[in-house]
Specification:
single chain, mainly alpha, about 60% helix
């Protein structure tokens, strides 16, 4: 079953029916529950700050390298207020093992300050507000909306796009997939409405793209 999603016919019609949609959802969620990387620490939390920190640390970095840095950073700076006025050099030392430490440290401190000064320490549940935060783009905003705010959003990265392009024989028409109306229309039907299933489905597609496709 592992390669089922990756090896579907490239002639699959765009107007797939509801039965097919439900089948894809079930297969991907079931696969994730058995083979997905469910033990990654940031996948088990819905704490907004912990989720945001993970999105910054995981950029262009292997998951296995991030685990210890993630845990160590949150042990010292467990909320935005604890990091907002930290010494940038101290933050750099903590994130140095995964590279880009100056960029990441600056983003983290600026992000923490913005949350404290502009949102009274509360992370917003609005895409338009989220992407105003330093270092937060559409993907990170979608992670927050999906995991923290319980909104059924798609997560679009290299791995998930690889699966969707094969599954639906679809080629992106926009550089930013979140601005690709055709793709978003497909995913609006595909992403489960139930918040937990939506989360598991997205992570399942992501892990399929990484491990199998």
């Amino acid at each position: 079953m592992d390669k089922w999603v990756c090896e579907l016919s490239s002639n699959l019609p765009m107007d797939v029916d509801r039965e097919f949609i439900e089948y894809v959802r079930r297969v991907v969620i079931d696969w994730y529950r058995v083979y997905g990387d469910r033990d990654l620490p940031w996948r088990g939390t819905s704490d907004p700050w912990s989720v945001l920190v993970a999105t910054i640390l995981l950029r262009v970095t292997a998951r296995s390298r991030v685990v210890n840095v993630y845990s160590g950073l949150l042990a010292k700076y467990h909320n935005p207020s604890s990091l907002a006025y930290a010494r940038i050099g101290d933050v750099e030392e903590l994130v140095k093992p995964i590279g880009l430490h100056r960029v990441r440290a600056k983003q983290l401190v600026e992000l923490a300050k913005a949350i404290i000064e502009e949102y009274n320490g509360q992370i917003p549940c609005s895409r338009s507000e989220l992407i105003k935060l330093p270092g937060i783009g559409d993907y990170a905003a979608s992670v927050i909306l999906l995991r923290v705010c319980k909104q059924p959003e798609p997560l679009l990265d290299t791995n998930t796009l690889r699966v969707y392009e094969r599954l639906f024989n679809y080629k992106l028409k926009k550089r930013n997939p979140y601005r690709d109306k055709g793709l978003m229309n497909i995913l609006e039907d595909l992403i489960p409405r139930d918040p937990l299933e939506a989360y598991e489905f997205n992570l399942g597609v992501m892990d399929l793209g990484s491990k199998v496709c």
